[in-house]
Every structure is written in C-alpha cells, then in structure tokens.
C-alpha cells in the first residue's frame, strides 16, 4: 500500500509540474495578447489609426497600401465607445478573435452610429508578439 501511495504521489507531482509549465507558457502568451489588444483598442479609441497600423501583422500591413486620403477620412470621425462583445482564443493554434462594437460620431454632422468589427489575432512565435490580421475597422460600413 505504501509503495502504491508513493507511486501515486510521484505521478501527481510530475503532472503538477507539467501543468504548471504549460500554464506558465500560456500565461505569458495570454499576457502578451491582453497587452496587444489593450494597445490596439486604445489606438482605435483615441483615433490614432496610424499608430494602430503598426499593430497589424507585417504581412497584412504591406498589402494594405493606405493612402493619405483614407487616413484623412479617419480624422473625420470621433470614437465614442469601444466594447468587446465576445471573444475566443486558441493558444495552441496561436489565434484569437474578438467581436467589437464601436460607437462612431461623424465630426461634421455629430450623428452617432454603431459599427460592428471583428478583430482577428495571430501569435508570432519568432517575434513573441500578437498581431492583428484584420485590417482597420470600416467605420463607414457601406456608407
């Protein structure tokens, strides 16, 4: 009985160490995701769309080809709210998705409306960073 109890304890301790190691790596990745999402939402919330572009995946960013006119269009709106309405993360696959509701005010007409936006994120193991793989939100959504 003592031998069985010792074997059980040893196995339990080994499993505990494996679980702690996996939590530590997922924890660091989770913290980096929180930081990246905070930086992204802050940039959008405060109208720093040029700064937000720097958080877009470099592969996506080089294809964006944003013109001055497109960036000027973002200066015509004020963001009144930025709300996470649902999210999911798969750390094993290195992906995350957040559904966002953005309050947008047209600076010229002072009319406010709500736009839905889906953020898609990718973990870059080499850079140890999360990148947005979706483009800047379309604040005009067909307008």
UniProtKB/TrEMBL annotation:
Keyword Signal applies: yes
Signal peptide start and end residues: 1-30
Alphabetical UniProt keywords: Signal
Entry protein name: Lipoprotein
Naturally occurring in which organism (per UniProt): Lysobacter yangpyeongensis
Lineage: Bacteria, Pseudomonadati, Pseudomonadota, Gammaproteobacteria, Lysobacterales
